[in-house]
């Protein structure tokens, strides 16, 4: 791992310690200040004086240095986990996550084959409790993903996520699973890449669960909603954010529920149960018949 990546991790991750790392907003501000420096200025050791010269207060500069002086904690944290890390400075950082701009994860802690980030992906989301028709659709999408060579992106939750994920694996496919809780809870699987932002030890929080929905929608070039009966909850929030920020093509199972009708009115594309192919789907505005 390059020194710049180590610095990024120390600035933005707790590394299992009781510290206050930089938020995305604070990191963006620091990056803007650094970008204003003369391009021909030689690189030197980062000191407290460096942060003072950028305009930070003495207290802020001291905080930065406390975060950066954690080399031992960083190495111990990474070695203890047996987990690999992909930072946004890494050459194998998933390009599609850059669609999230300032909200893209600074680092992904990974258990599995990180080369899956370089494959074509489709995503499936949906409710935890779902009717049999919607469950069958989720399984169908998972199977199609495997058959057509896509990696399925999922959140691994019960319901639609698990139905699609299990069907994809049963058909010989691969899965990228963004988890909202401690990565160490998940057993290694050669066909699944488990990912977590901020750290591998962190417990479940509602904020992390909502944030991972954005990652799922961004990483899939197409996202399918198996069920969203009401305009509320994580599935609705993620789909709504997708449509507002144009993260991926959004397709919904046309089951005539309130949530699906509203998503369709906002721009989501309805598909039926017997979808023959994922690869042949295209947004309505790109159709040759329009």
Provide an overview of this structure.
By secondary structure, the chain is of the alpha/beta class. It has two domains: 3-81; 114-286, Rossmann fold, CATH 3.40.50. It has ten helices and nine strands. The chain has helices spanning 3-12, 24-35, 48-53, 58-68, 71-81, 132-147, 160-170, 206-219, 233-245, 258-265, and strands spanning 84-87, 107-111, 121-125, 151-154, 174-178, 192-197, 222-225, 249-253, 269-271. It has a nine-stranded mixed sheet, with helices on both faces. Strand 3, helix 6 (132-147) and strand 4 (151-154) form a beta-alpha-beta unit. Helix 6 runs parallel beside helix 7 (160-170) and helix 8 crosses helix 9 (233-245). The model is unreliable at 285-290 (pLDDT under 50).
Helix content: 25-40%
Class per helix and strand makeup: alpha/beta
Please identify, by name, the CATH architecture of the largest domain. Answer: 3-Layer(aba) Sandwich
Over the alpha carbons, how many angstroms does the gyration radius reach?
Answer: 21 Å
- CA-CA gap between termini: 50 Å
Based on DSSP secondary structure assignment, what is the total number of beta strands? Answer: 9
Largest sheet: 9 strands, mixed
Overall mean confidence score, pLDDT: 93
Taken from the alpha-carbon principal axes, the silhouette is elongated
Count of separate structural domains: 2
Spans of at least 5 consecutive residues with low confidence:
285-290
The CATH class of the largest domain:
Alpha Beta
- Reported by name, the CATH topology of the largest domain is Rossmann fold
